[in-house]
Amino acid sequence: MKSNTISLLALMMFLEYFVWGSWYVTMATYMGENLHSTGVQVGDAYSALAIATMISPFFIGMVADRFFAAQKIMGVLHLVGGILLFVSTRITDNSIFYWIILLYSLLYMPTIALANSIAFNQMSDPGKQFPWVRVFGTVGWIIANLLLGYLAWEKSANSFYLAASVSIGLGLICFALPDTPPKGKTADTSASKALGTDAFVLFKYKPYAIFFVAAILVCIPLSFYFGWANFYLNEIGVNNAAGKMTLGQVSEALFILAIPFLFNRIGVKNMLLLGMTAWLLRYICFAYGNTGSNLWMLYAGVILHGVCYDFFFVTGYMYTEKKANAKIKNAAQGLFTFATYGVGMFIGTRVSGFVVDNYKIENGHNWLKIWFVPAYIALGVLIYFILFFREKNVKAPTNAETNFLREA
């Protein structure tokens, strides 16, 4: 790739995740401060992104890919999305705020796949080139939260103003991105194809089916962190909570480098077990952490994000890649995303909202009891996985096995 193309793609990824990081991490804090939202209302708002995750594959597969150049539709989505983010700051009713966030999420989530498509279309060797472009997205998320923490914007509408302005800026920049033409009406698209149902064949493999269920269930503890960690840290009086939470993204970027080294040495089962154990430890740290002598436990809970996320979800994507043959790889990855960030996160956001409301006390919440709920769920998933996941060696299915499964 040419250097100016690399720079444009890196800027695209930086701004793409800067926008997301600007409002998502601190939304619960903003809603509690300005909308006086209940836990259920906050959970509903976060569930909007999960709903969008379930719907966006249909939009990308059946509309965007067939009729529009990726960079142009991405530009329009970010421009309209920026306007919606600005409008959200004018809303004082929780019900209306939910619908604004849902509509915005329906516009934003397809842009992630579109950004990836634009980047891949310019690369001669995506396996080597894409990580160096995608890493700027993580940097964008980190910078956004450092800025929010430094400027003390976590509780104010400024977080949404920041996201709105950057979204509109990215929308304009999109029209200058390399052309990524539509595939046309002849593209192989259908509702089942967009959902990834071709990958259902993988469920004939008992170990993968067991892993798949665990992946959905572990999204419940994940939802507690994404939705409530910043709110929790602000409520107990941690200064610059958003800035400190960027240690989780730094940890994620560092631990992801260890995955290729460990994947073939300790095996997929041990990698997944480490990830699930980290979820349990994280919530124990949050349960007993405080701003005094146990401040280190709060830092530990945040820093464990790298192990929690990378060792389970990134390893999960790699495991899915290994299990699927060439014809169903894309479908398998799409199905895994739909099930985890869609179905799993939807369940998790709703559960977390009810739990937080249930343990509300005068002048705050009983966070010890709140954090023990995702800890117990993580422990349950861990025990389930230890008892039932029996695969030792990970390999792609042979042609004979695939044919047998398709005939079954």
Instruction: Provide the low-confidence segments as ranges.
Output: 395-408
Shape: globular
How is the largest sheet built, in terms of strand order? 1-2
Supply the CATH superfamily name of the largest domain: MFS general substrate transporter like domains
Mean pLDDT reading: 86
The biggest beta sheet is recorded as: 2 strands, antiparallel
State the share of residues found in helices, binned by percent: over 70%
Number of domains: 2
Helix-and-strand structural type: mainly alpha
Question: What kind of assembly state do the chains in view correspond to?
Answer: single chain
CATH domain topology of the largest domain = Growth Hormone, Chain: A
Approximately how much beta-strand content do the residues carry? under 5%
Helix count?
Answer: 16
* The first-level CATH class name of the largest domain: Mainly Alpha
